Amino acid sequence: MGGKPGLMAVETALVELLDSAGAPPDAETVPLSTARGRVLAEQVCSGVDVPPADNSAVDGYCLDHRYFQPGQRLPVSQRIPAGLAPTNLAPHTVGRIFTGAEVPAGADAVVMQEDSEATDDGVLLQQAPRAGQNIRPRGQDIRKGQTVLAQGTRLRAQELGLLASVGVDKVRVYRPLRVAILATGDELVEPGDSLGPGQIYNSNRYTLIGLLQGLGLDILDLGVVPDELEATEAALIKAAAEADVVLSSGGVSVGEEDHVRVLLERMGELRFWRLAIKPGKPFTCGQILGTPFAGLPGNPAAVFVTFLVLCRPWLLKMQGASAQRPDLLRVVAGFSLDRAGVRQQYLRARLVATDSGPVAEIYPNQSSGILYSASWGNGMVVIPPGVTVSEGDTVDFLLYEQMLY
Ligand code: AMP
Ligand code: MG
Question: If you measure from the C-alpha of residue 296 to the centroid of ligand 2, how many angstroms do you get, rounded to a whole number?
């Protein structure tokens, strides 16, 4: 798939990263109300049928459909609101029943109140009922013993509700990974402070904090490390000792101020550090003193892209999640790209709804230093090496929404 010799394909790097992920962290039991975003450490089976009994889907009258006769009124023998256990329905009668109430033995249909006429003499049904009509059968949603969620599922709001619906109040989930982050660069100043000559604000720290928070991980924020070998070494040792994973930004290029890569070779293992990805070519990974490590580039847009493309799936795998990669959407290009690249490009883009369907537009400046490009849109167009694009072509698209949680 194209790619210049010496540059590793994104797919190869991703497979290597995922293969390198070790066992997930220990499990802990947490209340369901605090489990959003966590990864299930066990399979959950239902101990109950949902719904637990046949119940009415409407407000109306329940009966045995065989007792219906056109024009004949049937007396009301009981009133069944939701939450009350009914008694067996007497033959040749109807029960007044409400939505969600249990259908009594002896009834097999519910007629909507709008399709009936009630007087003191009984209820007149306008049409012959069918067996089963307006009844939600026991176990229709979930059957007792059924697997509700598999181990490795990340819990979203709907999974929390689903677990509650089968009566589960606590879940076994993996402890969140502790991720150390550090930013390298003598030029970095914290937002809130004033900029001196040659300085810029440290944005990568906040991009990484936001991305890691989105994944529900624990952050060990080690701040800024100056471009000095000893300081970088000390920071990396501390990070490796105290965290499950270490992420850094900057200092992985080939300049003599770039110490991270050198230290990785010396203190741990350097797995790859020139990728066929744009932006993000200097992305580096390996381990430091046995702790998994990823060295993200310094350029802010490259940090955002390489985190989403490489770190996110890797962290999710390490966290024990069974699904790690977002699905690529196929969308129409609203732009053209005349020159093919040797690297796989992740163009910051936005998917716009049009009358003929979603169309992807790209931000005009795709330089790796332009962080506005990431905020401008809602996703990325993925262009493989060697590929050009004409407006109207179908291209791959990754929505940030698929990845920022
Ligand atoms: P480096 O890989 O360290 O040479 O950094 C590449 C570019 O990214 C340089 O222009 C840096 O000033 C910039 N950069 C590095 N770290 C940060 C950061 N934390 N926030 C904003 N820009 C950064
Ligand atoms: Mg630097």
Answer: 11
